[in-house]
Write a structure and sequence with these properties.
The chain has helices spanning 20-25, 46-49, 112-117, 133-136, 140-143, 184-187, 210-239, 274-286, 301-306, 337-352, and strands at residues 59-60, 68-69, 87-90, 99-103, 147-150, 242-250, 262-265, 291-293, 313-321, 326-327, 332-333. It has one domain (20-360): Zn-dependent exopeptidases (Aminopeptidase, 3-Layer(aba) Sandwich). The longest helix has 30 residues, at 210-239. The strands form three sheets. Strands 3-5-4-6-9-7-8 form a seven-stranded mixed sheet, sandwiched between helices. Strands 1-2 form a two-stranded antiparallel sheet. A two-stranded antiparallel ribbon has the order 10-11. By secondary structure, it is of the alpha/beta class. The two termini are 30 Å apart. It binds zinc ion. Residues 1, 105, 130, 248 line the site of zinc ion.
Length: 361
């Protein structure tokens, strides 16, 4: 999340339709191809399974005015992704339930070249991190569910955006026509390549070349989504459904007084079965946390893009108040982080023991 600018709360009219940029990135939504999966219990799963692993990679042709080429390179399959890659994938010995946990914003591997071109100091540049969220959900694999965590920082490349949400004002030349420069995230400086950190300070000293955005999307965004898409496809094939819990944390912000402890985002009821949201809500309630739905965080790209209840894929975004576990000024863990971690572990354990067959639709 990024709370300071209030951008992540943007509440789009979410429908079954996908934006052109999403269709470009994930042809799974653009049509279907007949190919059988490995015969799991899911209904009609095999027909689309391979497509989860495909994405278009658009590359500017050198010296010819940013003409897209090579539009349909296949995205690597989950098993083929390089390790270590731009993410950590912790798998359980045995997946017990159709749950997948993902943390796209907790990465903290800052490339030296990026730090060199940033005007921010080493601490300020970390303001956009959902710090330590991967640790808070670290028990998931032991309890029987995979945990995917980006290692690249959100300010470097945001996996909770469309692949090509870019701000023309950041780049030293024209952007290809297919880039989405009109989104409210871009307008707030928080596109795929962020112009500002959560506190609103600009990241870069000068404009950067478009090829840098391309490299980041190809090296970070695409492998992360190949892994997430692969986990969803595997899980749906095995269980007939999948619930992705997209894990985030939110800062305290003066403009958002009265924020609860947790905000559950299901894109206003379109990305996740209400019964699943209620289960998570009740778990947090039972532990004394204040919970709100969709206000001010209804869900980002991951929630809107993958959450397709009619295809038995559900996504629920959880935003936790950072004040529960960290010092936002020094970006350090507070002693009470262990309490939150214990409670999240309890919540995961409770969810893993439940029957999720209703998610098949
Ligand atoms: Zn986040």
């Amino acid at each position: 999340m990024v709370g300071a600018t209030g951008i992540e709360p943007v509440t789009f009219p979410v429908s079954g339709g996908r934006s052109p940029a999403e269709l470009r990135a994930h042809p799974v939504w653009a049509g279907s191809v007949s190919c059988r999966g490995r015969g799991g219990k899911g209904r009609g799963i095999g027909a689309r399974q391979k497509l989860w692993n495909c994405a278009r990679i658009v590359t500017a042709a050198p010296g010819c005015g940013l003409i897209p080429r090579n539009m349909d390179l296949p995205m690597p399959r989950l098993a083929e992704l390089p390790q270590p890659g731009p993410f950590l994938l912790s798998r359980p010995a045995y997946q017990r339930a159709p749950l997948v946990f993902a943390s796209p914003h907790s990465g903290r591997d800052y490339p030296a070249a990026f730090l060199a071109e940033s005007r921010l100091d080493a601490l300020s540049v970390r303001r956009s991190e959902d710090s330590f969220v991967d640790e808070l959900y670290g028990a998931a694999p032991k309890l029987g569910a995979p945990l995917l965590a980006a290692t690249f920082p959100r300010v470097y490349c945001d996996a909770n955006r469309e692949p090509w949400e870019l701000d023309p004002a950041m780049f030293d030349g024209p952007l290809p026509a297919w880039v989405n420069s009109a989104s409210p995230r871009v307008g707030a400086g928080l596109g795929t390549i962020a112009r500002v950190v959560a506190s609103g300070e600009p990241v870069y000293r000068r404009r950067i070349p478009f090829r840098e955005a391309e490299e980041r999307v190809q090296r970070c965004w695409q492998p992360y989504h190949a892994a997430l898409g692969g986990l969803i496809a595997e899980t749906r094939n095995e269980f007939g459904c999948c619930l992705v819990v997209d894990c985030h944390s939110m800062p305290a912000h003066p403009a958002q007084q009265g924020l609860p402890d947790m905000v559950l985002g299901d894109a206003h009821g379109t990305a996740c079965a209400p019964r699943a949201v209620r289960r998570v809500e009740e778990q947090f309630w039972s532990m004394g946390y204040r919970v709100r739905r969709n206000d001010p965080y209804a869900g980002g790209y991951v929630t809107r893009h993958y959450g397709r209840p009619r295809d038995a894929v559900h996504v629920l975004q959880i935003e936790m108040a950072r004040s529960l576990y960290m010092n936002e000024t020094t970006i350090e863990r507070l002693p009470q982080m262990s309490v939150l971690q214990r409670d999240i572990t309890s919540m995961i354990a409770a969810l893993m023991a439940m029957d999720w067959d209703f998610l098949r639709g």
